[in-house]
Design a protein that fits this description.
Number of domains: 2
Largest sheet: 7 strands, mixed
Distance between the termini: 26 Å
CATH class of the largest domain: Alpha Beta
Radius of gyration: 19 Å
Length: 327
């Protein structure tokens, strides 16, 4: 069975929207509804789409300049004053350059700060390795008290940001820069910590996050004439929906994870941890294999690092082969 609120045909007619547009829309909505919401950036307001909030609510917008450590410290201060700060930058700089401040001033102190990072993963393309954050999920999900979300498209980014505003405690949300297919219906439900089933399958299950959800759907659709492959959108990496992971493992006996991140420490590692402890199951992880990025167009990079539908199909075939050999 397909969840029609999420699955759409990934053809040329589907809207392609940058996920950061969802962040900008969410900020405007929050700004109107809650006067305690404040926004801080590190000289990248327009790039992360916080500039419209700045224009409409200038008294609640603060640009600290190119100083991501101060960004975290100031955000913690606003939290202590009873505000709900959203601190926004590029993922490679925040949490990349201010991890210590996030660890101590935000997570250790349990401050209600929302860390939102754009330009994550490979899809900053020509900017190259120095700007391609492929480790940010790993270094945030290890922090106590931190919630980590990797929404799939602009609509789900908006949902995640709105949910984060209601959540008490530190939250990290990451998304890319480039346009991606919109696969989430405006009226779809979203809950922190809950997986979103998109396609039901019996032979294998792909658990994906971020832009790789659309890629996973494409792979499952291409395989549908010969294999029944399920797809789960795991928009929350921490807390991980263990029940959904274990249910998929027991039902299909073969799991593939797909993420625009290192396979070390990200979604694949989180799923592997659950399976190894509770339900050992053949698993193949699709992601970046312990490498830095490089300059290139996004589609070229995704092909180079094997983050395409064809690569997911190969992973599905491999994991089903392992399942058969184990039986």
């Amino acid at each position: 069975m397909t969840n029609l609120k999420y699955l759409v045909e990934l053809n040329e007619d589907r809207p392609q929207v940058s996920p950061r547009e969802g962040f900008g829309e969410a900020l405007l909505e929050l700004g109107e509804k809650n006067k305690d919401v404040v926004v801080l950036t590190a000289d990248v307001a327009e790039s992360v789409r916080a500039h419209k909030f700045a224009e409409k609510y200038p008294d609640r917008f603060f640009d600290v300049g190119v100083a991501e450590q101060n960004l975290a410290g100031a955000s913690a201060g606003f939290s202590l004053a009873g505000k709900i700060p959203f601190m926004a930058s590029y993922a490679v700089f925040s949490p990349g350059r201010n991890w210590d401040q996030i660890r101590v001033s935000i997570c250790y102190s349990q401050n209600n700060v929302k860390i939102v990072s754009s330009h994550a993963g490979l899809n900053v393309g020509p900017d190259g390795a120095t700007h391609q954050a492929l480790e940010d999920v790993a270094i945030t999900r290890v922090l106590p008290n931190m919630t980590v979300m990797v929404p799939s498209d602009a609509v789900q980014v908006k949902q995640a940001v709105l949910a984060a505003a209601k959540h008490s405690g530190p939250v990290y949300i990451r998304f890319g820069r480039d346009k991606t297919p919109v696969i989430t219906d405006e009226g779809a439900e979203f809950e922190i910590g809950k997986a979103i089933p998109i396609i039901a399958g019996s032979d294998a299950t792909i658990i994906a996050c971020g832009p790789m959800v659309a890629t996973a759907i494409e792979a499952a659709e291409q395989l549908k004439d010969k294999l029944s492959v399920g797809v789960i959108n795991m928009a929350t990496i921490k807390p991980l929906d263990e029940e959904a992971v274990l249910a998929a493992a027991k039902h299909t006996g073969a799991i593939v994870t797909a993420e625009d991140h290192q396979i070390i420490g990200g979604l694949g590692s989180a799923v592997a941890e659950i399976l190894s402890e509770h339900c050992p199951t053949p698993l193949v992880r699709v992601g970046v294999h312990d490498q830095f990025g490089r300059s290139g167009q996004t589609d070229e990079l995704m092909a180079h690092y094997h983050l395409t539908a064809d690569s997911v199909i190969v992973a599905v075939e491999r994991v089903i082969g392992r399942k058969k050999n184990a039986s």
